């Protein structure tokens, strides 16, 4: 099986969980005998290429204005107006284009021109322009690698246009992979531009892979995608080492931790209300909210109002090692997300020997047995679960031991096998 | 014949360092020693030393006709001892002239007068003892943190043996009355009240170097003409300011030192008399009692307590702090008393204020990016302190 894969980031240069998941999956695919060419907007050269060939889109000279790309270009052209037409053309390219222009009197066929675009590969203000240019590169790559791949696989909406373009050029089946939808990020107040791109990608795809059944339902119900072509493949997790960090515990009190962006999607306010309830029964507990986000100030006020701020601490945004340290200091990890397509952080907590409580509205709840699951809005149940885990060592010990086994058994290899089945299905049974 | 009473407040809080959740249980040094040292050194060099020098020479030149009064908060004295002993020496030299009255306040510039009568008493006793030890005077005049005053606070202060108290001539309590007279406490009229002339004092505190002010530049002659004018009739004009106004908030190159020197020379030549708060209280008869059931202060346009008790962050931090009082007393441990007093500095709570307009911003430079950051940091320190108290 040969796969042309489009992603937006690849370790070590990552902003979120998407790059990590892509890396894990490609490792699994390689182990299962698949060959993967991974196209990313910007490669830095230090990517781990043992399992995958990383192709840097910033080095691909692509043809703009092509008729095959017409409608996609049309849809995103308005974003493109202010940008430079040929920002990084080399001197030679400029000269040759000039030659052509002299000979033909104009550039080829009206508005076609070739250029190389230096992607930032970030999530900045010109994101939409980069998304549309990535599509043009996608078409070029499909042309370049003709006959070298059997299936196209695109991760999240940023790469969908590239996937669609590659499919049009090559005629190979397209699989899109949903790591998060606009509904998870924004609730009901969706960004319609993003929604439209997501929907276009899913509609054009031959198969849609969702990271959980929760997400699968959103794809079918909110995007109106044919349920026959949608399936769920749960994420797995890779750990750099098997040793859990042992930080010196300076405080004997039980510590209950929330770690994530402090935004609507993550449900931080339910954690606060549960904390207040627990502290009424167990005044010695301590709660930590790690992260930052647009709801932080409101949460701080609420904590002050509840009169628990000597037992409820804020750390701000934590980086790599600090996250490990936070896990090592924690006795319970809580993820009360309102909507979480998958949710990798509880797995990291379990790996660090911390029992976890997760909301039923998270994808990871579908695969975890040794986690306490509550509805995100059920503050009483959440408080109950926290109290149980800090008061009854038998319970938390079981979650720690069994959770460790469970999370160690979650391998990308298994997920990759399922993905290969999806590829085969897409090739053999077109809908 | 005009009479002027000059009073200068000197306060430096012990600023907290960035204290994170991860410091809890590991790190018991809560103060930002570098920042505190730098600030105290700066203020010493820009204000305390040159202004003390100027006052000394003026007192000498006018053979005792110039009288001034000071209060130095306990946390300011502690830091001068540590970082600027020469500043303390220079205040002692001022004390030796006999032309200076030292006024009592709360040791840590705290809000204890509102939150805890017992702690208030202790803080005042501590500060009185320190002042006596350093300057050889037992204060008889009291000034509360940020001029906070109410009938009840006045009564408590008079029970501690003070005969005069300094507070704000707040418009909303004065109405048609003038701050240029002596008043008395409504519960115990033996406590005399000196009210700050807010207009004339703030002309120097805030407006002196403000080029958008229509009276800029302010000269000694112009200022003196305001003092002499019919708008300022009365027994005594009380000019009460932060001492840091001279050379620190108003830089030396604004001309503030020259202005002050000329002002004193001219005023004394024209026969204006300078007296201390104690002398004011002894010489003049109170014109009436002042009823102030709700506390006032000299802060912000409202002149009330909302700069410290305005939002849920401040209320939470203050109530959590003072809830520790009995534990601190019971522990009876010098280190704990020290931290307890540092944490009472009213500045910490001011940093948590979310009020939009505060005219005090010059005097209270906020080291935090937002009130929320100030709150988180303060609560981390307080939580660790509570942990140690309960350990």
Main traits of this protein?
heterodimer; A: 431 residues; alpha/beta; 7-stranded parallel β-sheet; 6-stranded parallel β-sheet; 15% strand; elongated; B: 391 residues; 5-stranded parallel β-sheet; 5-stranded mixed β-sheet; 17 helices; 46% helix; globular
Draw up the topology in text.
The complex is a heterodimer of chains A (431) and B (391).
Chain A: E1 2-6, H1 17-31, E2 35-40, E3 53-56, E4 61-64, H2 70-80, H3 91-104, E5 113-116, H4 127-144, E6 151-155, H5 160-170, E7 174-178, H6 182-186, H7 192-204, E8 207-210, H8 213-223, E9 230-232, E10 255-259, H9 268-281, E11 286-290, H10 296-306, E12 312-316, H11 320-329, E13 332-335, H12 345-351, E14 356-359, E15 372-374, H13 379-391, H14 393-408, H15 412-428
Parallel strand pairs in A: 1-2, 1-6, 2-3, 6-7, 7-8, 8-9, 10-11, 10-13, 11-12, 13-14, 14-15
Antiparallel strand pairs in A: 4-5
Helix pairs in contact in A: 1-15, 2-4, 4-5, 5-7, 9-10, 9-13, 12-14
Chain B: E1 3-10, H1 33-61, E2 68-72, H2 74-83, H3 85-96, E3 100-102, H4 112-115, H5 117-135, E4 141-143, H6 151-159, E5 164-168, H7 171-174, E6 182-185, E7 192-196, H8 198-205, H9 220-228, E8 237-242, E9 246-247, E10 250-251, H10 256-269, E11 273-274, H11 277-283, E12 288-290, H12 306-309, H13 312-322, H14 325-331, H15 334-342, H16 346-350, H17 371-390
Helix pairs in contact in B: 1-2, 1-3, 1-10, 2-3, 9-10, 13-17
Mean pLDDT of chain B: 94
Q: Estimate percent helicity of chain B.
A: 40-55%
Helical segment count of chain B: 17
Oligomer: heterodimer
The biggest sheet of chain B, with number of strands, parallel, antiparallel or mixed sense and barrel status, is: 5 strands, parallel
Q: What's the gyration radius of chain A in Å? A: 24 Å
The number of strands of chain A is 15
Tally the beta strands of chain B: 12
Give helix and strand order of chain B, one letter per element, not per position.
Answer: EHEHHEHHEHEHEEHHEEEHEHEHHHHHH
Mean pLDDT of chain A: 86
Q: Which pair of protein chains has the largest interface, and what are the residue counts? A: A-B, 21 and 24 residues
Give the overall form of chain B.
globular
**Element-level helix/strand string of chain A:** EHEEEHHEHEHEHHEHEEHEHEHEHEEHHH
Q: Biggest sheet of chain A: strands side by side, in what order?
A: 3-2-1-6-7-8-9
Number of helices of chain A: 15
DSSP strand (E) fraction of chain A?
Answer: 15-25%
- Cα(first) to Cα(last) distance of chain A is 20 Å
